[in-house]
Request: fold
Amino acid sequence: MRRGNWKIRIFIGLAIVAFAYVQRCTNKEENPYTGRVQNINMSTEQEIAIGLQSAPEIAQQYGGLYPDEKLQALVDQIGNKLVNNSIARETPYNYEFHLLADTQTINAFALPGGQVFVTYALFSQLNEAQLAGVLGHEIGHVIGRHSAERIAEGNFWKTVSVGATVGADAGDIVGSIGQNTLLTNGREDELESDDLGVLFMLRSGYNPQEMIRVMEILKAAAGPNRVPEFQSTHPDPDNRIEKIKEAIKKHQSTP
Reply:
């Protein structure tokens, strides 16, 4: 009887894993703004809802919003300029730009659906063109649907983990493999966002060379021995500068 139960568990586990793989294959769609085929399992409306729901809690983790309406207005002005002069204006997302009160953490990031954040610690070190580069990069994450892609990948590995647990009591191992896979997806996302950020800067009349200066600022913020907070969401700046130079050359030569 025990042997029969073991066979049933293996069968159910394999069925769950197979279902996860089939879903992964059928969820692929082409991003109309980047042309890249992605594994996505949510609508743009769901992305927007997730971003709006998460934004207040995320802001609170960074001390809330910076209490200066003029500086916030500047961030809004630059962000909206980038949106209005790029393909971002054709997307269904609701772009909102938030200046966070954190004066210690060098960081900028975007939630799905158009919620974009920059800490005052980073903002205070940037000129207008550099801020445009940072915001353009984060808009690129939204257009690239990177959060939705990571969520789909995470859901896939959770389902596989359930199947492995049912079949062989090894869900924790598969779960760790899924987590590692998610963490390694960041580099391509960042490079795609850098490329889009350069394009958005050019379309809005900003010097894209300032994006390289942003990378230098981020590197300097790390110091010789300290890993900065932004590296939890962005890879090492040195690894991105050459690709940014290539993006500048490509987009400057394109009408």
